[in-house]
Structure prediction request, 213 residues.
Amino acid sequence: MKVTIIPKTLHFKQPAGTSRGIYTTRKVWYILLTDTENPNHFGVGECAPLPALSCDDVPEYEGVLEETRRRLEENATAFLKNAAVFLKDLEAYPSIRFGVETALAHYQARSLQFWHTPFSKGKEGIPINGLIWMGNFDEMYHRIEEKMKAGFRCIKLKIGAIDFEKEFSIASGKCYTLKFKASNIGNGGSITIEFGDQPEEVIDMDIEVNPAE
Prediction:
């Protein structure tokens, strides 16, 4: 089995605001597993840490990727038989582990349909929150409107870009559940607010604060 690392730079369609800055590009790496006897048998996985946000966004990241590539290629038979041993060594680098696991699943399935579930068969969706990147009032309002029209009922806002009262007013009454993520709540945390049927009826609020290290 041949293992190849393919770096790519992705370009955002619009700037994405976060608590650590604004993204216009994002670097990712693809892990490609190829059967040396049959090039049509392959698996691809994506390693995509977020700059300044992911725990494994570290200077030695590409070095770890290269070491992982070398180990997988030199121990291909053992890796295919017992991947868990190799994956355990990547616990500190979750984005690399995700890429390796995805590539392996693709390689073993010989298809992009890794599992046989209603979701993988295109029969059902998976309920997820609609992420709203930081922006000015009009941008965030427009993005929430788009998410609601797309069927989202749980909206997650990255807050701190504008006044909190304005951020709160953007979504109140529009959705059933609103999640705020903020890095300035203690050592980072979240506020979850559940709305009732009336625009200003807050029926539940939960504040979660991550403990200081």
